[in-house]
Specification:
Layout lengths: L2 H27 L9 E9 L2 E5 L5 E4 L3 E8 L6 E12 L2 E5 L6 E2 L3 E2 L9 E7 L11 E9 L8 E11 L1
Length: 168
């Protein structure tokens, strides 16, 4: 073999080992996992005559393809459904990007709860779908949390006061 071929093969092997080790460490130790928590609590409370999300809700985040979970506690008078939808990048200072394509930040999108009965907690599970390859800071996305007595609510929303931070 020519010397240049040996060097090329050696460099390629080193790159594979370094990238593989980095990905393994990231998954096992949460390196570059994005800001936020992989589980957040969402409390539904009566606000006047309407059941609404009680804010603020902790930031949600995690590494690419890792599980995230919303834990919902309903203290309202009637059973409710909750939807998590319309992710927009937060540029700071109240400036937001356009709504990201469905499923590109968190999958599923929208993430819909089963019926949440009063006093019986329920969970909604998703995965971080956005791959973020930067050590210069996390990308933040705001999203809506909508509540209603019918499945897949899209009105009566806490918007956009909650974040999701995808990581590598």
């Amino acid at each position: 073999m020519k010397r240049s071929a040996v060097i090329l093969v050696t460099v390629g092997a080193v790159v594979v080992v370094v990238v593989g080790g980095f990905v393994t460490l990231r998954r096992t130790l949460g390196i570059f996992g994005g800001g936020g928590k992989d589980q957040v609590s969402v409390q539904l409370t009566m606000q006047g005559d309407v059941c609404s999300v009680r804010g603020p809700v902790d930031d949600l985040g995690g590494a690419w393809k890792n599980k995230v979970q919303w834990n919902i506690d309903n203290t309202c008078d009637a059973p409710q459904y909750v939807s998590f939808l319309e992710y927009r990048e937060d540029f700071g200072g109240g400036n937001y990007g356009s709504i990201e394509p469905r499923g590109s930040v968190v999958d599923p999108d929208p993430a819909n709860s089963p019926q949440v009965l009063r006093g019986i907690p329920a969970s909604v599970v998703g995965k971080i779908a956005k791959l973020h390859l930067s050590h210069f800071g996390d990308r933040r996305f705001k999203y809506k949390i909508c509540v209603g007595p019918n499945q897949n609510p899209a009105t009566n929303c806490l918007d956009p006061d909650v974040d999701v931070w995808p990581g590598f």
